[in-house]
Amino acid sequence: MAQQHQRESLSPLSHLAPHHVLLSSCQISQERFYILTPASLHSSVLKSLSLAASSQTSAPANTSIIISTLLTQLIEDHPEASFATDFQNPRDWVLNNAGGAMGSIFIIHASITE
User: Fold this and answer.
1) CB atoms < 10 A from the CB of 13, how many?
2) How many whole angstroms separate alpha carbon 64 and alpha carbon 8?
3) Is it the case that residue 6 has pLDDT exceeding 60?
4) What phi-psi label fits residue 10: left (phi over 0), alpha (psi between -120 and 50 degrees) or beta?
5) Residues 6+ away with beta carbon under 8 Å from 105
6) What does pTM read for this prediction?
7) For the chain, how many helices (H) and strands (E)?
8) How far apart are CA 77 and CA 80, in angstroms?
9) Which are the contacts of 82, defined by CB distance < 8 A and separation ≥ 6?
10) Cα dihedral sign for 93, 94, 95, 99?
11) Residues 114, 111: Cα–Cα separation, whole Å
12) Are residues 111 and 84 in contact, defined by beta-carbon separation less than 8 angstroms?
């Protein structure tokens, strides 16, 4: 009877404490699995945007310059990573309809941990 009363007096969230500790430790060690860092990704994007801006081309050509330059830069900076590179193939683009906005996206890199 005392054990039953003790179980009832525990907080309803007390069983989540071990899970919280596990997830917190996983979150801390997660960064060692990152391939791309925000700083290196930012640098690659800035290089591709500046090159596209200096080319003074129209929007479709400008987009191609941005993507191809970004892909080249990412491949050079991160040879160990796997990137999708065939952005000219329409079958590699994903249609997206989220929040009432429709568009298409090309996924360069996807990762569970990043």
Assistant:
1) 8
2) 63
3) no
4) beta
5) 93, 94, 96
6) 0.61
7) 4, 2
8) 9
9) 109
10) negative
11) 5
12) no
| Of the candidates 63, 109, 110, 113, the residue with the CA atom closest to the CA atom of residue 88 | 63
Tokens representing residue 107 in the block: 């996924």
Name beta bridge partners: 98: 101
Q: Range with the lowest mean pLDDT among 23-32, 34-43, 104-113?
A: 23-32
Q: Is 59 exposed, middle or buried (0-12, 13-18, 19+ CB in 10 A)?
A: exposed
pLDDT in tens, 42-93: 998 999 888 888 888 877 778 888 888 999 998 888 888 888 888 888 888 8
